[in-house]
Amino acid sequence: MDSEFLDAAQDLARQGLGQVSPNPAVGAVLVKDGEIVGRGFHTWHGRKHAEVLALEEAGARAAGATCYVTLEPCSHQGRTGPCVDALIEARVARVVAAMQDPNPIVAGSGFARLRAAGIDVQLEESRREAAEQLNQPYIHFMRTGRPLVTLKTALTLDGKIAAPDDNRGWITSDEARQHVQMLRHEADAMITGIGTVLADDCLLTDRTQRPRSRPLLRMVVDSQLRIPLHSKMVTSAEITDGEPDLVMAGTSAASPERRKALEARGVRVLEFDGAGGRVDLYRAIQWLGQQQRHNVLVEAGSKINWAFLEAQLIDRVFIYYAPKILGGTESLPMAGGVGRRRRVDAIRIRDLRIHQITSQEFAVEGRVEKDL
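Request: output the structure for the sequence above.
Response:
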């Protein structure tokens, strides 16, 4: 039964995806005499944590109940009070969690305080993997101090992203592109290159129309600030609570006049000088981490894709495949550049997960093995 109720909490937590950043998605259910008497999931704008919402619904029935929660209850004062205090005050008898919180501020202290108050605490290892999958970006950031960077791309079966001449139309179906929108909805930031902007005049927005905890941040790697002022990116730039949603990752070699023109249109311009006049991608990712952007999605062209892979900045890939073949030597591959010259040096992907998108399309998700 523990697993069943933790699954219910997990389903609740999923409802918060896109609405919790920079916090983790958490769900909780309170169970008494085999019946769910309280439910809750966290959202940033709702402030209250999942456990507190479940306790409020349960009321007096919380006494002697079991709290099933997807992540260790917090034990520190943040925007709200510690959840462990609320659980202790409500006199719950038992807490079953799917995983310990990797946040060093918590990291087991929530469990310790509950046990010290006489509450039985149990970690359900069988649900840990699912809990970690739900909050990959948050967990990655807490363990490494860096955002989780995902390379997303759509390919033909022979690994091509673009034809040499006419690229009107889409590689994948409407259903696949709707699936991509869910990835964007869960992302905190998106990155593309100036080549993609010039070729496609893209927007890179979250079009799910679902609520978000904060606007999706769009970053364009553009060393010379060549982005057209009339592009969809620039004309759609907005400032919310003093924070622009469009950022140019440029260099000091760019024209000061171009910088002023972009800033006048609400675009933030940053300089990340790297080798050979290129943008230092490591510093760009570091900056996103400093902004608490834990979940970063790269949607770019062949050159930028390889630049991120070669710099070992990609943590995860999400590759959509369509039942098509372009062929030829001029069609662009997913990752260009020099590439790896020997098979034994190929970048390896592990922990593969296959997502069936339609009856004819699928996506491959996996973690990138790092040399570092």
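The radius of gyration is 23 Å.
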